Structures are given as structure tokens and as C-alpha cells.
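Model the whole thing, not chain by chain.
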Amino acid sequence: MTTMRLSDFDRAAAVTWADDQETANADVPKSWRVHGGPINGGVTVSVALNALSERHDREFGHPDPLVISAFFLAAADPGPMEIRTEVIRSGRSLSTGQASVWQAGANGIPTERLRAVATFANLGATPPDVLTVARPPHMPPPEECVPISDLPGYPHDEVEVMQHYDMRLDPDTTGGPGGRPSGLGQLRAWFRMRDEREPSALLLPLVVDAFPPIAWDLGVSGWVPTLELTVHVRARPAPGWLRVSISSANLAGGFVEEDAEVWDSSGRLVAQGRQLAKIITNLPTLPVGHGWVV
Amino acid sequence: MTTMRLSDFDRAAAVTWADDQETANADVPKSWRVHGGPINGGVTVSVALNALSERHDREFGHPDPLVISAFFLAAADPGPMEIRTEVIRSGRSLSTGQASVWQAGANGIPTERLRAVATFANLGATPPDVLTVARPPHMPPPEECVPISDLPGYPHDEVEVMQHYDMRLDPDTTGGPGGRPSGLGQLRAWFRMRDEREPSALLLPLVVDAFPPIAWDLGVSGWVPTLELTVHVRARPAPGWLRVSISSANLAGGFVEEDAEVWDSSGRLVAQGRQLAKIITNLPTLPVGHGWVV
């Protein structure tokens, strides 16, 4: 039983291929749910990406997502899902494909839950040159940060998907998840998989979408579903802890933008993510004096 | 001849619909070319978006792009192009669709040049609440900034598409376009259409992609083709000048990320764009002492 040796993540994102080699099937465990309902959106993205990665690796030798954009059409449930893939374009060093994730609804009728387009490459062949003005976030080491499972005010046990993650929050940025918003829209944390699966290019989009909504630190509570998520994967991450910095510059008109940067243990910026999410609750009560523009 | 009264932009992005109401046709003038070759990628995006906008307005009352992701598959030429649209999902306040832009290649065989997925809404119905920590860029008024047409070192006349724009660069950030890179990866400018067409939600993705590559300010020269562009359109812009701030945090591994923020004349952040582009030339000679990490 080799499947017994798969990590949590690889088991969730695993696909089997139909004879046409274009349609794949997955079966996501219930442990990836949020509040007993749909699965975390990043997991659906991971399933789509894993299918595309296998196909682009098989056909072109391009296993790594370089840039992906995913549109969330409807929340996905745990259980079986079908992934329909399409190769859009292929070149020597880059190829672009599309994946649609379908799942039967309550009425039994298949519904498209997510559509993703992504460009793949072989990031193992990427030149190591780095010219960047970005800096990894400053924060205390993991053992001096706050495990999200210990954070007062955060409903850790209700967000079942969190059992897969080891998140250590910078003590200065626990306000959003802890129900004491700073109004600054900032979160810094260490991240690794609880089963210590090492990070990979394929894991990074999940990491970008794994954290509590940054809108919570802007005083919004409740559900903040993602409409669209774009991730640039810039390198295969080195083994070990990832550092994640999440921020939002703009909550307006009922929508909020969320930016994420992911740094690996070697200090390299390995992923940048941006998403647009919808505010479902009413507007927040405003903390005063925290740099807000109303 | 009502078409004579269309603005430059609206004439470039105009589409006519086939009987199926799903396929549209456009014909982009040569004046939108770059260096006598392909047209500017933002124009191809605009054609795709305009077709989708018309369809989503007609079918759902959602004329405005809220978030768009476009993958550039091959450079597009001036002249006829076909836009194949698909409605992916529709709801009361949001609907999502896809547009593929096809054009015959040199061999006469149709080639997909661009694929875009976008979610549409009616931004006229957006609540006016704004909670943001973002601030518009500080720069001198337009009359004290540098028209890009007057900038020494910038090949204005060879970039034909620039004739459609009135760009006034902050004198402190002319280094990239002027061939004197600062190494900071920053550009601030005022923008309007030269024919004074007022900005609209549909125009903003063009604006995001209209400026010289930010990589030039990081010391890279030559062609920096976009692989993927994501734009969040957060409000219909007020009439008048737009302020645009462009930056890059990460040039690495042969690719560069470029971020853009667009502010309207009322001081509202109306669009955020991010793109991933490929560096075609060799790595730059490095200016020293400008915050680079090598």
C-alpha cells in the first residue's frame, strides 16, 4: 500500500487519470473542510494544479506551476471530483493549460466549482540569479511565535483543515485571527505541514490560501470567500519552515484584496499571491487611529 | 458614420457579434503596434474584455470587469481577430466568463493569442465604502511632470502605441524609460488618453499594461513580454487624470513581477494590477548601492 506513505497533502491532491489522459479524478478527505462545510479553496486549487502538473510533466517535462490564476465558481465539498484538463499552448520552456474542477451538486447535476489557467515550467532548471528589493519579514523564531492552535479567540477546532498545518504567528500580528483586529491588515507567520512534508512548488498555492482572512485584521468578521487567486511560484522552495507575510491594502466596495509573500528557509522569495475576496458580513466597526481611510 | 465619433480606444476594442452571439470579431488598427511589430498586449486584453463586457451586460446586467486574469499565449498582430466567449457561471451580482482571442498566423492557421477569464459586476451599484491603508502616490502636478514623448533616451516614436497616451512621468522616476535605471523598480506617472477619452472600468486594464517595463528601472533592457496579467478593478474611475504607481519587488530566475496601482482624480484606488513577465535579454549590469540583492 504505497498510498499509506503519501503525505496529507499529496493524498488530498492525488488524481487518477481516465483513459483519455485528459480527465482526472480526485477524492478529497473530509479533514480539509472548514466549519464542517465545504473544503478549503486552496485544496481545490491544489487538486486542479496537481492534475495539470502531472499532464504538463508527462507531455512537456514542465512539472512546476510558474503562474496560476484560479476563479472560484462555487464552494467544493469533500469527496469525489472530476478535473477536466486542456493544453492551451506548449513551448520549449513553458506550457500553459487549463483545469476545470467539476462536482455533482445536491441535485446530482455536475457543477463547475473552479476554473484555473496556469503556465508550467521546470523550475529545477531556473537560473539562480535574484535581483530583488523584497526582504523576508522580520519575526521571532518559530518557537517564540504563537501556534494558531493555542491562540485565544481563534476557532481552531472548527476549521478542520487547520489540523494539517503548523502555523506559528508573529506575536505582533495575532489580532486578526484572535478577534482583536489591528486595522493594519497584516499577518506574519511561520508555516509548515504538520506531517512535516517538505514544501514544493506545488504546495505553495495552498500555503498562500491557508491563513485566516486578512480582512479579519481590518475589522471584518465572518465569511470572506475568494473570487480569484493568482500565484506566482518563483522557485522550488528549500526544505524547512516557510515564512509568510500577508497584507491587504484595499478593502472597498464590498471586496478586499489580499497579498501574500512566501519565503523559504534560505531567505528566497518563492511565491507571491494575490486574491480578491468578497465581504459577506456587514461592514466592520472601525478601530480608530490605525491608518484607516473611511 | 457614428464610428467616426468613437475614441481611439473604443475603436480599437470594438467588436461585432456573429449570429451565435458568442463569437465576436475585432479589427485593431496598426497604430497600436510596438516597434512596428505586434500590438501592445494590453490592447488584446481590451478587445477580449470588451467582448466579454458586452456579453455579460447583455445577458446579466454586469458590464464592468471586477477581476480579470489574462494569459498571453502569442503576440497578436494588428488587423482582424476572432474572440470566442463562454459564460462560465452567472449569479445575481457577479458572473464569470472566458474569452479566447484567435488570429491567423503567418501560415494562415488560426492560433490562440490570448486567453482571459474575468468576473463581471455592475460597479455602478457598488457601495462607496472604502477602508484602505493605501495612499495615492505623491508627485508633482501633471504640468510639472515629464511627458514621455519629451524624455531623452526613450524611443517614443518607435513605440507607436504611445501616440494614444498622454503620460507624464514623475521627474524622480524617469530612469527606467530614459535608460538610466535607478535599481529601485519604481515608476510614478499621470495618465490620460491623448484624445481625452475619460477613464472607465474597461479602460483600466489597458492603463495597467501601458507603461514601459518596470524591469528597465531594474537595469534590464530589451523585450520583457508579459506571461500573465491580473487586474482588480475596484471602482468606475472619476473623470480626469489617473495617477499610476508601478513597482517591482522581485526580478529572479529570468522572470520579473510588476505591480501597478491606479488612482482616479478623486483619490480613489480604482485598479490594482500584477503581471509576471519574462526577461529575454541577458541579465543587467548592476548599479551599485540601490538596494539590490544579488
